[in-house]
């Protein structure tokens, strides 16, 4: 994480971080419009649907991981150079920005941070925003390689609860099968444990303190020695859970296909 004050200081330094705005929410296709109304000075808009995911399909889910060459081309368009630090944020408690945080670290960029509290924290601290199309940075030259953070596939998700803990980061009603607004079937992967992503945050939209996160995950049966994996609806908010676990000192694997892939396969069992 980085606080608003820390980010302001870094932006005023000799080599400021590349600043990415990932304005996205399920059911809201107007991220760029929100960005153009108000964003952090110098930020570049990132389109989650087209730049942080490959095209959707029943066999791979709603937000498959992008091909590494495509992600690298996007990162260069955003102006990222080898050795650059990156800060990502959104206006929804980092529920979307965490996807960029996870992807860029998975692709080999070591210094990627989330602006804790996002846009609201920045404005509450008294810092200015700007409007318009955003920064036009010089083309980057970053080289990306996949696999720097752990992932699991659908076969591993099926057996993971027998050897570790598989966390379901969706809202409780979706886990229980009481509601399913977007995916083919309601319910959860058998053996998974409900761990709604919203519970990673405090009332201000910032991540809970490290001791509170450690306690939250301990209650769910997870500590630093537990083999842990996370899924959600399509691998977006699960990245937020991975970030919260990292804050608590716990490494976790991401299941990118998540429920959107699992529920589209009629041979996969569903629990409610």
Automatic annotation (TrEMBL):
Its EC number is 2.8.1.-. It is an enzyme of class 2 (transferase). The keyword Repeat applies. Residues 13-131, 165-271 form the Rhodanese domain. GO terms for molecular function: transferase activity. Gene3D superfamilies: Rhodanese-like domain. Pfam families: Rhodanese (PF00581). It comes from the Bacteria. The keyword Repeat applies. Keywords: Repeat, Transferase. Residues 179-201 are annotated as: Disordered. PANTHER family: SULFURTRANSFERASE, THIOSULFATE SULFERTANSFERASE. This is Sulfurtransferase.
